[in-house]
Amino acid sequence: MNKILIVSIFSILTFNVMAQEKIVQTAGRDQLGEFAPKFAELNDDVLFGEVWSRTDKLGLRDRSLVTITSLISMGITDNSLIYHLQSAKNNGITRTEIAEIITHIGFYAGWPKAWAAFNLAKSVWAEDSVGQDAKAAFQKEMIFPIGEPNTAYAKYFIGNSYLAPVSTEQVKISNVTFEPRCRNNWHIHKATKGGGQMLIGVAGRGWYQEEGKPAVEILPGTVIHIPANVKHWHGAAADSWFAHLAFEIPGKNASNEWLDPVSDEEYNKLK
Fold first, then answer.
1. What is the bridge-based pairing of β-strands 251-252 and 193-194?
2. Is the pLDDT score of 187 beyond 90?
3. How far apart are CA 33 and CA 114, in angstroms?
4. Is the dihedral of CA 127, 129, 133, 138 positive or negative?
5. What are phi and psi of 219, to 5 degrees?
6. Cα-to-chain-centroid distance, residue 82
7. How many CB atoms lie within 10 A of CB 113?
8. 26-45 average pLDDT score
9. pLDDT in tens, 52-69
10. Cα separation, 50 vs 44, whole angstroms
11. Global pTM exceeds 0.70
12. Long-range contacts of range 128-133, CB-CB < 8 Å, 24 or more positions apart?
């Protein structure tokens, strides 16, 4: 009889490459559509629709890093830099990382440019200083570490999540932490035989929901068994940080399909 192997969170080891997502941008047409329609077209359809959408060649996080470095080096600290700083944050660059990035840029691009960029970055990441305190307090509630930002799968989440390997030998397990309101997209663990996923609540309060069924509250010690081929999502409650252990049960022809985000309208119905 084969032993069941436990694999780390969200099919990291069994995840198949998903269809490339296309970036949708309308800023060019919104602001310059009538005055400079060709420029607007190139901005929206080529720069963002083609270049930024080549995520199979270079991820969004790395493209944000290259872009903000280029803008700061040229001394561009207007709304375009603010936009790209906000995008960098959304693409997983943390408050600590942006401070180190701009410090490094300062030695090569110039100290005044770094100062100007810091003034903008402080406002973009302002709420994170409060979030860091809450994150540190949550860490004290559980025995497993919060880990590092889940940047590799950030595009499949609303809000920030973190991954921490708990075991890498014999049984591979990761602890997953969600900030308040963070949740992953609807997704399906597909398999023709076996498969599925299992969650174990560690700390805080969260939710699990299968399509067409009421959401189930997850508290420390709650065990959730997720059958293969069932559309579902899971994440934190609106008023609580949340962490769970998660592992995927191997199955025949196993794959993971990421679907639409859980809308605010759906999420806000949960209490």
1. antiparallel
2. yes
3. 33
4. positive
5. -120, 170
6. 20
7. 20
8. 88
9. 888 888 888 999 999 999
10. 9
11. no
12. 128/94, 128/95, 129/95, 131/179, 132/95
Q: In angstroms, rounded to a whole number, what is the distance separating the alpha carbons of residues 213 and 165? A: 31
Measured distance CA(227)–CA(246) in Å, rounded: 14
Distance, CA of 219 to CA of 108 (rounded, Å):
49
> Residue 141 corresponds to which tokens in the numbers above?
């509630």
Domains in the chain, ordered, with CATH?
9-16+134-267 (2.60.120.10), 27-126 (1.20.1290.10)
CA 100/CA 98 separation, integer angstroms: 5
Distances (CA, A) of 142 to 55, 163, 177, 200, 211: 35, 14, 11, 13, 30
Cβ burial 184-216 (10 Å sphere, 16+ → b, else e): bbbbbbbbeeebbbebbbbbbbbbbbbeeeebe
Nearest to 204 by CA among 232, 239, 248, 171: 239
Which tens digits make up the pLDDT trace of 211-246? 999 999 999 999 999 999 999 999 999 999 999 998
Alpha helices in the chain (DSSP H): 27-32, 37-41, 60-73, 79-90, 95-109, 111-124, 126-139, 264-267
Please state, in angstroms and rounded to a whole number, the distance separating the CA atoms of residues 157 and 178: 10
Q: Are 204 and 238 in contact (CB under 8 A)?
A: no
The first and second tokens of residue 35, run together, are 């005055």
